[in-house]
Design brief:
The complex is a heterodimer. Chain A is mostly helical. Chain A has ten helices and no strands. In chain A, 63% of the residues lie in helices and 0% in strands. By secondary structure, chain B is an alpha+beta fold. Chain B is built from five helices and ten strands. Classes of the chains: A mainly alpha, B alpha+beta.
C-alpha cells in the first residue's frame, strides 16, 4: 500500500513548509541538527526534527521527484526518505560533519537521492537503462561511430555502422583499436578522461556535460573536445593507427 | 564513494589533490560518474527554481499592474498639461460630466469680504470639495458641500494678494472628477 501525506506526517514531518529556510551563514549546518542529534529532551528533539524537515521538505520533494516517475511514487519516495533519516536514532544524519562533507544541503541531497534510488529499485527493480553491464546493439553501434569520429575524421564509417552480424575479423580489429585507444587515454589528464567518458561512454549532450562539469557553455565542451581529438589522433598515429581499420 | 566525499566534491570543498583523485575515479567508475552528473543536474535544477517568497510578491505586483491598467483612472491630475491646470480646464474620469468653474474667473479680482465661488453641477447627489489655497500652495480653507455655490465664511480673512481655488467632486456611484487650479486676486 502506498504511503501518503498522512503517513509522512506521522513520521513527524511537516510536508510543505510555509516559510523560507532559516537564515544562516552559507554552508553551515542548520541549528536544528545539533538539537536533533544531541538533546536529551525528547520533546525538544521532536520539535527540532519537525523544524528541520519543514525547512528541507521542498528540497526532499525535489529530489524524490527527480527519481520517481509519478506523483504517488514521489510521495512514497519522500516518505521513505523521512523514515530512513529518522531511523535508528538518526544514524544517517550522524554521518554529517560540518567539515569536509560539503554543505548540509548538498550532503542531504546526495543522501536523499541515494535513498530514493534504493527505494525505487527495491520496488521496481533495476531498470535496463541503469544496468551498465548490458550494452545493447545500438549502444555498441554508437560506440563504433564514436570510435570512428575519434580516430579518422572524414573517413567513411559505413563499415562500422553495420549491425552485429559484422564478420569476426572486423570485430577483432575494433577490439584491437579500442585497446590502443584506451592505452593512449590513460596518459590523458583525469579531467580529460572524464570528459571523453561523459561524451562517448555515457552519451551526454554537450549541454549536459557543461552542467556536469560546471563549464559556462556547451561551446567550452566542444572546444575542449576538439582539442582532445587532435591530441588523440596524434597519439594514435604515433602508434601506427591512421584510420578506424588498423 | 561516500555521500560526504561526493558532497564535498560538488561543493568544491576538496583539496586540489583530492579533487583530482575524485575526478580520476569518475573517469573510471560509471556508477559514480552517473551519480555525479545526476547530482549536478539536480542542484542546477534547484537553483533555477525561484523561491515562493520571491514568486508571490512578483505575482502580486503583476496582478496589481494589470488591475491598475484595467481599472479606470480616478482623480488623476498628473497627466494634465500645465496649461490646462493654469487655465482651470477640467479633468474628468470615466466619462463623468466635467465640472465647469463659473466664478471667480481666472485672475478675477474679488472683494476679500465677500468672496463667492460657483461651479456647475455634474449631477444629482454629487458631493463637492472646494479648496482655497494661498500663494504658497497651503490650503487656507476647504469645505464639503452638495451645493454649487459657496461663500467664504467671515472667519476666513483674505488679505490682498493672489489665491487659488479648485473643486473636486464625487458622485454617488463613487466616480469622481476634479478641476484644475484657478487663480484669483483678493483686494
Amino acid at each position: 500500500m502506498s504511503r501518503t501525506f498522512q503517513d509522512a506526517g506521522a513520521l513527524g514531518a511537516t510536508i510543505v513548509t510555509a516559510a523560507p529556510m532559516e537564515e544562516r551563514p552559507k554552508g553551515s549546518p542548520p541549528s536544528q541538527l545539533g538539537v536533533v542529534l544531541t538533546s536529551d529532551d525528547a520533546e525538544a528533539r521532536d520539535a527540532a526534527w519537525r523544524s528541520l524537515i519543514a525547512d528541507h521538505s521542498r528540497l526532499l520533494m525535489h529530489v524524490a521527484r527527480s527519481v520517481a516517475a509519478e506523483h504517488d511514487g514521489t510521495m512514497d519516495a519522500y516518505a521513505f526518505v523521512l523514515e530512513q533519516l529518522r531511523s535508528d536514532d538518526f544514524r544517517v544524519l550522524r554521518h554529517f560533519s560540518s567539515v569536509g562533507t560539503g554543505t548540509f544541503t548538498t550532503w542531504l541531497t546526495v543522501v536523499a537521492r541515494r535513498m530514493c534510488v534504493d527505494f525505487y529499485r527495491s520496488r521496481y527493480g533495476r531498470s535496463r537503462a541503469q544496468d551498465n553491464n548490458r550494452p545493447s546493439a545500438e549502444a555498441r553501434r554508437d560506440a563504433r561511430r564514436r570510435l570512428a569520429d575519434l580516430t579518422a575524421a572524414g573517413v567513411d564509417i559505413t563499415p562500422l555502422l553495420r549491425s552485429d552480424d559484422s564478420d569476426p575479423e572486423e570485430k577483432l580489429r575494433e577490439a584491437e583499436l579500442l585497446t590502443i585507444l584506451q592505452s593512449v587515454m590513460v596518459d590523458l589528464k583525469p579531467s580529460d578522461r572524464l570528459l571523453l567518458k561523459l561524451r562517448f561512454e555515457d552519451g551526454l549532450t554537450a549541454q549536459e556535460i557543461a552542467t556536469a562539469l560546471e563549464w559556462p557553455t556547451q561551446f567550452h565542451v566542444f572546444r575542449r573536445l576538439n582539442a582532445l581529438y587532435d591530441t588523440l589522433r596524434q597519439r594514435l598515429r604515433s602508434r601506427g593507427v591512421e584510420n578506424h581499420l588498423p | 564513494m561516500t555521500p560526504e566525499r561526493l558532497a564535498a566534491f560538488l561543493d568544491h570543498q576538496l583539496s586540489p589533490a583530492a579533487e583530482e583523485e575524485v575526478v580520476a575515479h569518475f573517469a573510471e567508475c560509471a556508477a559514480c560518474r552517473q551519480e555525479m552528473t545526476a547530482m549536478r543536474q539536480l542542484l542546477k535544477g534547484r537553483e533555477k527554481r525561484i523561491p515562493w517568497y520571491i514568486v508571490t510578491p512578483m505575482l502580486v505586483a503583476l496582478a496589481a499592474s494589470i488591475a491598475f491598467l484595467m481599472v479606470p483612472r480616478v482623480g488623476r491630475v498628473d497627466s494634465e498639461s500645465p496649461s490646462s491646470i493654469r487655465s482651470g480646464a477640467i479633468t474628468s474620469t470615466d466619462q463623468v460630466q466635467p465640472i465647469t468653474m463659473v466664478s471667480p474667473t481666472d485672475d478675477a479680482m474679488l472683494d476679500a469680504r465677500h468672496a463667492m465661488f460657483a461651479w456647475r453641477s455634474i449631477g444629482a447627489h454629487a458631493t463637492y470639495l472646494l479648496t482655497v489655497q494661498d500663494s504658497t500652495g497651503s490650503a487656507l480653507w476647504s469645505s464639503t458641500t452638495e451645493d454649487t455655490i459657496v461663500t467664504l465664511p467671515d472667519s476666513v480673512r483674505l488679505t490682498a494678494g493672489a489665491y487659488y481655488w479648485s473643486v473636486a467632486a464625487r458622485l454617488a456611484d463613487a466616480r469622481s472628477a476634479k478641476t484644475g487650479v484657478r487663480r484669483f486676486l483678493a483686494r
